[in-house]
Amino acid sequence: MSSEASVADAISAFPSNVSPSDQDQLVLTRGELNRIIANAMREVRTDIDDLRAEVAEERAFDRRRIRALEEACPKQKEVDKAPGEKYKTRMARLEALLIARENEPLTFSEVGKYLELGSRSDKGNTRRQNMRFFGKILEARPERYHVFLSETQKGAKMVCLSDGYFSKGV
Q1: What pLDDT digit, counting tens, does each position of 105-155 carry?
Q2: In total, how many domains does the chain have?
Q3: Which of 64, 131, 149, 155 could bridge to 112 as Cys pair (CB 3.0-4.6 Å)?
């Protein structure tokens, strides 16, 4: 609507009595020009509406296709896999560290420092990423590790050996 008003303002700025200097030049009245512009705008609007409908149909088709793919291939949890040698070594080092500290809980950041997981340089924080993945592995083994949120440090996760570790001799 505002574009129509701006077009009408532009048309009204033209002088009403234009005299052509050349006989072959086409002269349009304001009414004819308004009608031509209105028709052109109507055509553009219908084209835009058609394109919007086409895009909506394509999106619906894509959503159905993605849903079908997701149903056909359910995601596997990475934690369900058995840890590799690297993580087995890390878990053994963590157990030795916790036993040496008489099973005093450690924050994940302390574990990352002691096990030398990644780096904390300005360019990247790989230690945090490594500890996040390592923490998922620890959380998947509640018979060995007790992972919990710290009461004193907001949002910090802590880990210690579980009671089952000592009773069963895991």
Answers
A1: 888 888 888 888 776 666 667 777 888 888 888 888 888 888 888 888 888
A2: 2
A3: 131
Cα–Cα distance measured from residue 161 to residue 163, given in angstroms and rounded to the nearest whole number:
7
pLDDT tens readout for residues 49-70: 999 999 999 999 999 999 888 8
DSSP H or E stretch at residue 106 = strand 106-107
Residue 104 in tokens = 């005093």
H-assigned helices in the chain: 2-12, 30-72, 85-100, 108-114, 126-139, 163-168
Residues 95, 114: contact at Cβ < 8 Å?
Answer: no
**Residue 16 is part of which domain span?**
2-72
> Residue 104: which CATH number?
1.10.10
Residue whose C-alpha is closest to residue 44's, from 10, 29, 36, 57: 36
Based on the domain organization, do 139 and 163 belong to the same domain? yes
Query: What residues have CB less than 8 Å from 158, skipping those under 6 apart?
Result: 105, 106, 107, 108, 147, 148, 149, 150
β partners of residue 157: 149
β-sheet with 157-161: strand ranges across? 106-107, 157-161, 145-149
What SS3 state is found at 31? helix
pTM as predicted? 0.48
